[in-house]
Amino acid sequence: MKLVHGLKGLALNSRLLLVCAALGAFAVWVRAAETDAPDGVGAEVLDRYLSNMQSQQAGLRGLQMDMDIDAELPKLQKTGKLHALRSISRVGQITYKGLKFIGDNTIKNDVIARYLTAEKQTQDVSQLAISPQNYKFSYKGLKPREGRDVYVFELKPRKKMVGLFKGELWVDPQTYLPVREAGKFVKNPSIFLKKVEFVRDYEIRNGVALPHHIESRIDTRFWGPAVVSINYSNYAPNEEEQLSSMAPRDTQ
Predict the structure, then answer these.
(1) 28 shares its domain with 53
(2) Which one, 51, 123, 128, 130, has the greatest CB density within 10 A?
(3) Do residue 56 and residue 29 come from a single domain?
(4) Does the pTM exceed 0.90?
(5) 73 and 197 fall within a common domain
């Protein structure tokens, strides 16, 4: 009888241990879900990325660059090309100066102009930054890019807001700066644009991730699908910003 009771007690204790272990594992899973943050390698990469992005924003301010925009409405067989100057002020405001356009005016007014207007409406860096305040991060591992592996995170926005997107972030393994952002905007930036999917590629120079190429596929409300391709080049200090900083100030 004592042996039987001992075995029953052992079985009961084993069950209790299994239940406790399951509860402990569940608690760990809940804490991880609450933080929405990667652990291990992903956590270290994310910490370095977030730290470097503070200087990244400062590095882009006061720059100007050429933009070559190719846009197409395939169903209407309409195309257009715009060469423009994109400037970023010292406070982060983006402006455009069209230099030359070739093509159909529908492309110019209803695709390119609306696209650039939508971009200007999403200039609040603090509200749109790829940060834990705006996104949930999930580390997905490594992917090959141009002969080497990069870190990849899945992004899910915490709120539905113009400028936020659901997709991926690719991080350079040496500088911990972005080399690609891709996905779909969770809220349409314009009533004329029904859905916007994009891939943004960056080029890293002197510790700054500069915009290099954007490929966007857009469902427009009136003209059907549109394709917009943007290439950036000739990065230089903003001449107007330099002249403004050199201008004498009124000391009165």
Answers:
(1) no
(2) 130
(3) no
(4) no
(5) yes
Rounded distance, CA 210 to CA 218, Å?
A: 23
- CB neighbours (10 Å) of residue 102? 11
d(CA 183, CA 205): 24
Q: What is the pLDDT of residue 174?
A: 94
CB 124 within 8 A of CB 116: no
Give CA separation, 64 vs 18, 52, 71, 108, in Å: 63, 21, 22, 22
**What is the mean pLDDT of the segment spanning 212-225?**
92
Q: Which domain holds residue 24?
A: 1-33
DSSP conformational letter for 123: -
- CB-based contact 195:184 (threshold 8 Å): yes
Regarding whether 149 and 106 lie in a shared domain, the answer is yes
Q: Which two tokens stand for residue 143?
A: 């992917």
Q: Is 207 exposed, middle or buried (0-12, 13-18, 19+ CB in 10 A)?
A: exposed
Range picked from 8-12, 88-92, 130-134 for highest mean pLDDT: 130-134
Q: What distance in Å separates the CA atoms of residue 168 and residue 141, rounded to the nearest whole number?
A: 12
Same domain (yes/no): 26, 125: no
Give me the chain's average pLDDT, please.
Answer: 81
Q: Are residues 51 and 145 in the same domain?
A: yes
Output the six-digit token pair for 192.
């004329």
